[in-house]
Automatic annotation (TrEMBL):
<dbReference type="InterPro" id="IPR036291">
    <property type="entry name" value="NAD(P)-bd_dom_sf"/>
</dbReference>
<dbReference type="InterPro" id="IPR001509">
    <property type="entry name" value="Epimerase_deHydtase"/>
</dbReference>
<dbReference type="Pfam" id="PF01370">
    <property type="entry name" value="Epimerase"/>
</dbReference>
<comment type="similarity">
    <text>Belongs to the NAD(P)-dependent epimerase/dehydratase family.</text>
</comment>
<comment type="pathway">
    <text>Carbohydrate metabolism; galactose metabolism.</text>
</comment>
<keyword id="KW-0119">Carbohydrate metabolism</keyword>
<keyword id="KW-0413">Isomerase</keyword>
<feature type="domain" description="NAD-dependent epimerase/dehydratase">
    <location>
        <begin position="3"/>
        <end position="249"/>
    </location>
</feature>
<keyword id="KW-0520">NAD</keyword>
<protein>
    <recommendedName>
        <fullName>UDP-glucose 4-epimerase</fullName>
        <ecNumber>5.1.3.2</ecNumber>
    </recommendedName>
</protein>
<dbReference type="InterPro" id="IPR005886">
    <property type="entry name" value="UDP_G4E"/>
</dbReference>
Length: 321
């Protein structure tokens, strides 16, 4: 018996897989390696290479590895790019999820932990986002994640699917020296790449209505996120109740300027960031409460900002050497 982790060769997925195996829960990875990295999957973990759009491949994976639960992380994850590629985004994230759920139903696999996103909220008009905050996604990516949550809800009604969706905010750091964030769109790798290339990192906008004028966001360590997946899977295996959605947030947030200061200190490369114009659609503040997740999933911010930076830098620098 094993849990299938779709997208398990990615930055977040590989951390989830290692958290599962270290907790004694067998895992198998399904990944088409379009953005995942083969080396992120240890040799003792089965890897099925392919897409969640391939129903026959999914059927074989479920049969050969006796899959009893799914962590679903696979998908197209770039909110900005999704505006230019909406059909691709919906194909990967909506059709792909529907295909996966169909195979789960056919195979009588009734438990799933879904990778959702803070993008379902769009630009919230509250200081602290909770699970009750209205969802108003502003990109095809955010819309596709919300539709994914609806699909799980509807399958619960139809066939008794047991599920929960974890809404991520900004995932950073590294739990292992060989796992790093390779995204071309996330803040940490963008800053690290600039420093490694001898360029000066930039801040987009310094005139927001925040204490230092820069955007405030939730930043959570990837290992803390992975631990929440293990807790959710264990509760589903035990038949214990879970909320349909959980926000994995810090409750207070960090500004972009504070991130830059921590990066200069953590990397040992002093710099003064360049100031660029605001990016359209960037809200001044998105910070979430993690109280429900703390109650049910033992969620906690176990890493400081300094640890987030230092662990991410060690892994990224190792990959560049």
């Amino acid at each position: 018996m094993a849990w299938l982790v779709t997208g398990g060769a990615g930055y977040i997925g590989s951390h989830v897989v290692r958290a599962f195996t270290e907790a004694g829960i067998p895992a198998v990875v399904l990944d088409d390696l379009s953005s995942g990295i083969r080396g992120f999957v240890r040799e003792d973990v089965p890897l099925v290479r392919g897409s969640i759009l391939d129903g026959m491949l999914l059927e074989r994976a479920f049969e050969e590895h006796d899959v009893t639960g799914v962590v679903h992380l696979a998908g197209f994850k770039y909110a900005g790019v999704s505006v230019q590629r909406p059909l691709h985004t919906y194909l990967q994230n909506v059709t792909g999820t529907a295909t996966l759920l169909g195979v789960m139903s056919d195979r009588s696999v009734d438990r799933i932990v879904f990778s959702s996103s803070a993008a379902v909220f769009g630009t919230p008009d509250v200081d602290l986002v909770t699970e009750a905050t209205p969802t108003r996604p502003e990109s095809p990516y955010g819309e596709s994640k919300l539709i994914g949550e609806w699909l799980l809800r509807d399958q619960e009604r139809a066939v008794g699917l047991r599920h929960t969706s974890l809404r991520y905010f900004n995932v950073v750091g590294s739990g292992y020296p060989d796992l790093y964030d390779a995204s071309p769109h996330n803040l940490f790798p963008l800053v690290f790449d600039a420093l490694l290339d001898g360029r000066t990192p930039r801040i987009n906008g310094t005139d927001y209505a925040t204490p230092d004028g820069t955007c405030v966001r939730d930043y959570i360590h990837v290992s803390d996120l992975a631990a929440a997946h293990v807790a959710a899977a264990r509760r589903l295996d035990a038949g214990e109740p879970l909320e349909p959605v959980y926000n994995l947030g810090s409750g207070d947030g960090v500004s972009v300027r504070e991130i830059m200061t921590a990066m200069a200190e953590g990397t040992g490369i002093p710099f003064e960031p360049e100031v660029a114009p605001r990016r359209p659609g960037d809200p001044a503040r998105i910070v979430a409460s993690g109280e429900l997740a703390a109650r049910d999933l033992y969620w906690a911010m176990r890493h400081t900002l300094e640890q987030m930076v230092s662990s991410a830098w060690e892994a990224r620098r190792g990959a560049a050497s």
